[in-house]
Specification:
Chains A, B: Pathway: Purine metabolism; IMP biosynthesis via de novo pathway; 5-amino-1-(5-phospho-D-ribosyl)imidazole from N(2)-formyl-N(1)-(5-phospho-D-ribosyl)glycinamide: step 1/2. Chains A, B: Belongs to the PurS family. Chains A, B: It is found in: Cytoplasm. The structure is a homodimer. The relative contact order of chain A is 0.35. The termini of chain A are close together. The first copy, chain A, is an alpha+beta fold. Chain A contains two helices and three strands. Strand 2 of chain A pairs antiparallel with strand 2 of chain B, so a sheet runs across the interface.
């Protein structure tokens, strides 16, 4: 069994309103040191396979077909033994 | 400057409808090996400080006050030099 941890973030040049709103809220709570907040998705996939090379390819395809909007989002992932 | 990477996931005993829907969609696309999908938040905070101990405390407080719903979500974070 393998586990894929996928980190999805907005591309740097794309506005992140949710991040901006959280930053303002944190400042209002007194956390002045926060200079930027970017909010993305953290996805955990459990895979019934031990074939690492194949899993690498297929997780990439799953991200680009369904899990990530590659027009406005970047992604990276890590595979670990479960 | 420090960077905090915060990983927010639904508690294990809490239903994750978004994860379930993604799992069904992946299966429909032929990715039968996916046995579970859990979707959470990935938050990147940039902090204008180099005081690691203080940053540790304050990021924990930011999570529990604003960024995380501790009733249904778990979280962990990592601090790195930016």
């Amino acid at each position: 069994m393998l586990k894929a941890a996928v980190y999805v973030t907005m591309k740097q040049n794309v506005l992140d309103p949710q991040g901006k709103a959280s930053q303002e809220a944190l400042k209002a709570l007194g956390y002045e040191e926060v200079s930027s907040v970017r909010i993305g998705k953290y996805i955990e996939l459990k895979l019934d396979t031990n074939n690492r090379a194949e899993a690498e390819e297929r997780v990439k395809a799953m991200c680009e077909q369904l899990l990530v909007n590659t027009v406005v989002e970047d992604y990276r992932f890590e595979l670990t033994e479960e």
